[in-house]
């Protein structure tokens, strides 16, 4: 696929996989995807499997991501994980503001912006998630919701940091539902997000930012979605839990 920005395909394993299962999946992906150079491949296991997946993917083209981090660098924050701890396992990316965390942990745009700044301070690349619910889409509020989330979650980043940030457009109604956004819906949302980035930073910066699509991505629909001009990759949930389907999504995109 001939794209202006390098594709980034990430697997968000969410709260799945024991260490043994994570190792098996990572080892299988390492073998299967060894020859893929054109795409940035990222796997985001749960915290408990980061160390073993890190060792298993050493010297490979598979990069490691985490699913969250604390906005603080250390201290009395029971149950939290900070950027420095992730760096110990050679983590390079971190998913922030996933809709599940916005919904269940009530994460706000302001908190996500703080986490994004913390990630950059530790040279971790944030994958910042935005997306509207079905009710918001049906009420014609998609653009307003996306604009608020993009402006709020990326507030305060420099242009240089923005270029090293990935935005994931994940319509909430498409996550885990089997309902994928149509290529037209995905392209329209991505182009809109890029437009907001252009206003927030500048056009040249917006053109460099990679915007992934997430929500029921499968081998059967991934390629068509990623062939849209403003869709620069995928953030894959369910289909990333199995080596064959994730590898197929990556290999089909090349
Ligand atoms: P599914 O691919 O299971 O719909 O999940 C998408 C997602 O939330 C990735 O972060």
Topology:
Blueprint: E1 8-12, H1 19-32, E2 40-44, H2 50-56, E3 62-66, H3 83-87, E4 93-96, H4 99-104, H5 109-121, E5 125-130, H6 134-138, H7 142-153, H8 159-163, E6 166-169, H9 183-200, H10 203-208, E7 210-214, H11 219-226, E8 233-236, H12 243-252
Parallel strand pairs: 1-2, 1-8, 2-3, 3-4, 4-5, 5-6, 6-7, 7-8
Helix pairs in contact: 1-12, 5-7, 7-9, 11-12
Bound molecules: 1,3-dihydroxyacetonephosphate.
Summary keywords:
TIM Barrel, alpha/beta, binds 1,3-dihydroxyacetonephosphate, 43% helix, 8-stranded parallel β-barrel, globular
Task: Kindly report the spatial arrangement of strands forming the biggest sheet.
Answer: 1-2-3-4-5-6-7-8
Give the radius of gyration: 17 Å
Shape: globular
Amount of helix: 40-55%
Q: Biggest sheet, in brief?
A: 8 strands, parallel, barrel
Oligomerization state of this entry? Answer: single chain
Low-confidence stretches: none
